[in-house]
From TrEMBL:
The lineage of its organism: Eukaryota, Sar, Alveolata, Ciliophora, Postciliodesmatophora. InterPro entries: C2_dom, C2_domain_sf, EF-hand-dom_pair, EF_Hand_1_Ca_BS, EF_hand_dom. SUPFAM superfamilies: C2 domain (Calcium/lipid-binding domain, CaLB), EF-hand. GO terms for molecular function: calcium ion binding. Residues 113-151 form a coiled coil. GO terms for cellular component: membrane. It comes from Blepharisma stoltei. Keywords: Calcium, Coiled coil, Membrane, Metal-binding, Transmembrane, Transmembrane helix. This is C2 domain-containing protein. Pfam families: C2, EF-hand_7. The chain crosses the membrane at residues 347-366, 396-413, 433-454. It comes from the Eukaryota.
Amino acid sequence: MEQEIAKNPLNLAKWALASVDQKIKTSPFQVNTRFALDPRISHERQLELRKAFIEIDADKSGAISLEEILNFLRGINDEVDENYVKAIFESMDVNKDGGVSIDEFINGYLEQVNGLSEAIARYNQTVAAKNKELATLKEQLEEAKKVEKMNTYGIMEGSTLTVRVIEAQNLNIVTGRPTAYVNLICERQQIATKPIPSDKNPNWDETFSFKITMGTGELLVQVFNKGTVSKDDLLGTCSIPLQDFRDQSKHEGWYQLTGRVTNARIMLAIQWIHRQTEYLEGIISGMENDVVQDVAEKDRIEAELRKLGTNPLGMFHKESWVDRLESKVVHEVHEFTDKHFKSVGNWNTILTIGIFMVAILGIGTSFDKPDFGNVTWACWGFMGMIKGWDTKRYRLGMITLAAMILFDLLWIACDSEFLVFEVHSDPAINAKRFSFVMGFFDFVLKVLLFPVIVRCYMKSKEDDSQAIFNT
C-alpha cells in the first residue's frame, strides 16, 4: 500500500505522514513528542512560491507552462523528477490550457510540500527525543557498571522480578459469580491483589515486585474465590519458570489455569532484570538501531522533496558550487567523526579549548613573523564565546579556518628547512626555528580543529531547522 501511494506524486503528503505514523506506532521505543506546524512556515513558503512564480514566468504572461517550471526546478537541483512535476502541474491546470496561474501553482505545491515537511519535522523530533533518552541510558549504564555486583548464583544483587496482574477470564463457579483475587508466590515471598467482587472476568491491573536471589525456581500464580463465611476456595493455579524470562524482555500473555475451573486463564506481564548492565546495553543497542531507521526514513522523504525541486525544509533554493562543496565536506566530516569519535559528547567544549590553543601557538609563531591571521581568528572566536555562537558564525569560522589551513600548508612547504628541534649558535636562526615549530604545531591543531567546528556548525543548523519546524 505504501509503495502505491509513493508512486503517485499527488499523494506524497499523505504517504509521508502515513509513513511516520506507522513507524512511530510500531517502534518498540516510544518517546514523548509534540508537533504542530507553525503557520509562519506555510506563510513563508507561500511568499517564496510567489517569488518563484515571478522568476519561472519568463514571458511574463501571468501563467506558467510545464516547460518553464521544469527549467526553473532543474536549475535549483538535478534531482528533480520530471514525472512528479508533470503530474502535479497537470493537477493544477484545471482548464487544461497548458498554463497555471499563481494561485493554482501555490496551492498545488503547498499541499505536497507542507505534508512532506511535517513528516520530516516529526522524524526530527522523534530522533532528537530518542537521542536524549539514549544519553540518559548511557549515563545509567556507566553508573550500573560501577555498582553492579553478582552473587554466587550469577545474578546481580538487587535483582527484581516485576509482575503485572492484568485480568482473568472464565472464572465460572457453580453458584453466582466469584469474588476473585490473585496470590503470587516466588522465592518465599507472597503478594496478593485486591479482590474483585462478583465478576467472572475480573480486571485487577496491579503491579508487584519480587527480590530474586537464585533465579532457579518458579512463579506460582493462584486464583482464589474469597469466602464470606468459609475459607477461600482455590479456583486455579499455574507455575511459570523464572528461566522463561532470562532474556530480560517484558513478556505479556495469557496463562492457562489448572484446577476446579475449566477454560480459565489469566493475563500477566512479567519482566525479570537480573543483570542491569546487560539489560541497558540491549536497550541502547536497540534504540540506536531504531534511530538509524528513523533517519533513513527521514532521508527517504527528503529525497521526495528534492524531486519536487525543494530542499529538506520545503523551500526553493538554488545551490551554487560553494553550497555543493560545503555539503560534500560536511557530509564527509560527519561520516568520519561518527565512525571514529562517536563517543564525543560536547563538541563546543573542544572548540573552546582549541581556540585558546590557537591563540597561544599564534603568539609563539609571532616571534619571527607577525601572525595576525591566527591571533585574529582566535580573538574572533573569543567574541563568539562572549556574544554566543550562531550558524552564520560557525560557517564563517569553518571557511576561514579552511583557508588558514591551506595557507599554512604552503608556508610549511616553502620553509620546511626550519622544522628543526636543535639549538643554533645564532639567536636569529633559533627565533626562526622556534617560530616555525610553533606554526607547524598550530597547523596540526587547526587540521584537528576543523572537524570540530564542522560538527558544531551541523548541530547549529539542526537546531535552527528544529526551531523553524516547532512552534
